[in-house]
Amino acid sequence: MSNASGYFGVAYFVVCAAAAGLTLYGIFDRRFTTEVKLAVIGIASVFALSAVVVPVGAGLQQEPIKEAARLCRERGIEPIMWRLNAPSFSVYRGQPTQTREPAPGDVVITKAKRLAELPGLGYEVLYAKNGIVLIRIKA
């Protein structure tokens, strides 16, 4: 499945603890109006999401694409993209990637959940991570 826990470092826990502390302080402090407290907590939440949570999600989504592209580039593999919309794969690989139906002998990058849709072709898994697979269709 996913290795998301590796992306949540110390910064994530510090920011979440600070946001929770600020929220609790806002609940119990009586010096400020509710509107001011909600505005401050909202700003802190937006900061926490944009600084910590969104980069983690982006990393989880892009890391397998980047690694599969690097593998293809290093091994000189000409893959095809099948039922996957990931233009960044071509960017990381440094070349355009064809999008078409797979044929025997092709190396294919796709989503793991799409493997059941392969038209009766056997395959060998070359790379798999976070729902992205790079496979070689058996001849």
Give an account of the 3D structure.
With 139 residues, the protein is an alpha/beta fold. It folds into 2 domains: 4-61; 63-137. The chain is 49% helix and 17% strand. The chain has a 5-stranded mixed β-sheet, with helices on one face. Strand 1 (79-81), helix 3 and strand 2 (98-99) form a beta-alpha-beta unit. Helix 2 crosses helix 3 (87-93). The mean pLDDT is 89.
Q: How does the SSE layout of this entry go?
A:
Blueprint: H1 10-28, H2 34-75, E1 79-81, H3 87-93, E2 98-99, E3 107-111, E4 123-129, E5 132-137
The biggest sheet, with number of strands, parallel, antiparallel or mixed sense and barrel status, is:
5 strands, mixed
**Span between N and C termini?**
28 Å
Question: What is the arithmetic mean of pLDDT?
Answer: 89
Number of DSSP-assigned strands: 5
What is the element string, with H for helices and E for strands? HHEHEEEE
Tell me, what's the shape?
Answer: elongated
Task: Give the helix proportion (percent range).
Answer: 40-55%
How many individual domains? Answer: 2
Q: Strand share of the residues?
A: 15-25%
